[in-house]
Amino acid sequence: MTVTHASGFRAAGLTVGLKDSGRPDLSLVVNDGPSDAVAAVYTSNRCKANPVLWSQQASADGRARAVVLNSGGANCYTGAFGFETSRLTAERTGELLETTPEDVLICSTGLIGVGGQDFRDRIVDGLPALVEAAHAGVDDGRAAAEAIMTTDTVAKTIERTAAAGAGEYRLGGMAKGAGMLAPGLATMLVILTTDADLPASVLDRALRHATAHSFDRLDTDGCMSTNDTVVLMGSGASGVTPDEESFTALLTDACLDLMRQLHVDAEGAHHDIAITTSGAASVADAVTVSRSVARSNLFKAAIFGEDPNWGRVVAQVGTTDAEFDPARIDVTINGVRVCTDSTPDADPDSVVFTREVSVDIDLKSGPHTGTVWTSDLTHDYVEENSAYST
């Protein structure tokens, strides 16, 4: 079911020839209502792709009926022509769905600079078949999820069902992302759907909380995308109105699930690393410290070599403006305390490495905790990204 797990939604995915591989590359999610509430968050990169510029405008009123997504080209830095491509895509989709262009959001993923006339023609000409496939109701959302994949090795989807009062409501979702995973939502496109009957204002608050505690904590390679988009659409089809706190908790759980799916599929990764800083004076301090370690190539290379080099962790902590005593830092790797009060503790050779690696840092400066997820720096990552465009 995936993105169509929530009632009131249809989806489709097909191939229009944007990828040399011939794999699916055009996707659609339609909200049949009765509500057309929407919330969205976008990349914080100041260099934004044309679909982001279009969708920011279109979603500002808290309403949307559909999202069109393509892989095989980012339509970023393709000039006024590229923005016109996004507008024309929304106009044609609006015509086919009998809604306004401003109720259609656009998402793209792929190489920056790709988005010429052939790119435009293939998308716009493929829209009638895409809408017809969605109308036919034969897609359970799987094809839609597969059509947004780039270097992903698997489609990423979630489903959730929750009780509220005498009824129940559902969440569905799909995501793509495997590289350029860094704060600012990571390099990803995410479409979330719910049939809960909630206004756009509640969806917006819930989404911002959920992304801040999930996608914004994923930092596999320190590279921020130009196209990041997370959209939450509400159909209201269940007629159930959950309280905001419980809905936010369920949405956050769903986003964490998708984030972890992105994490384990990160390009070239051999180790999935969770860096947790505790004993911090604030959550911001905890996240800052964890992120500083996550972005250290020396640390990431050490984990690739399964070297529990805690000195590289302590050195990174010292680059931050977090509150801590440099002489009182503890570091634990995979459950083994290798550093206590900034001095050697257990024999590093006693650390056992598996695919999952935990690094715990205690600043002994307060009650707050924060986790950032990252990956090791591998030969495979370098090889894949050195030849990505060729």
TrEMBL record:
Q: Encoded by which gene? A: argJ
Organism annotation: Brevibacterium yomogidense
Alphabetized UniProt keyword annotations: Acyltransferase, Amino-acid biosynthesis, Arginine biosynthesis, Autocatalytic cleavage, Cytoplasm, Multifunctional enzyme, Transferase
Site (Involved in the stabilization of negative charge on the oxyanion by the formation of the oxyanion hole) found at T109, G110
Tell me what this protein is called: Arginine biosynthesis bifunctional protein ArgJ
- The positions annotated for binding substrate are T150, K176, T187, E267, N385, T390
Q: Could you say which protein family the record assigns here?
A: Belongs to the ArgJ family.
Which superkingdom is the protein from?
Bacteria
List the GO biological process terms: L-arginine biosynthetic process; ornithine biosynthetic process
